[in-house]
Amino acid sequence: MHTQDSEVVPVPAWPFSLVVFSCGGCWSVTAKMLRNLLALRQIGQRTISTASRRHFKNKVPEKQKLFQEDDEIPLYLKGGVADALLYRATMILTVGGTAYAIYELAVASFPKKQE
Question: Acetylation among the record's keywords (predicted)?
């Protein structure tokens, strides 16, 4: 914000003209703010852009064929080694967490005797 006694000093700078506002000792450089706003706008355009820069092979038909095969493998393991590792880690954490919860309930249900 600038008050009535503010002075505007244009300074030529590439690619934007730099405008400096003097307001009682505080300096605000608007060219830097404009550059930041333009950078944010460009990032937003790149993120939301409908035109794809990279062209990937469509793997959906291959995945559909893989997941629809009747090969006695459970669906949650058809993704390969990564799925098998995630499944095993989940089972270990689930069984371990259940055992720990039962242990803590047992400890809490039998309080220590005060001597």
Answer: yes
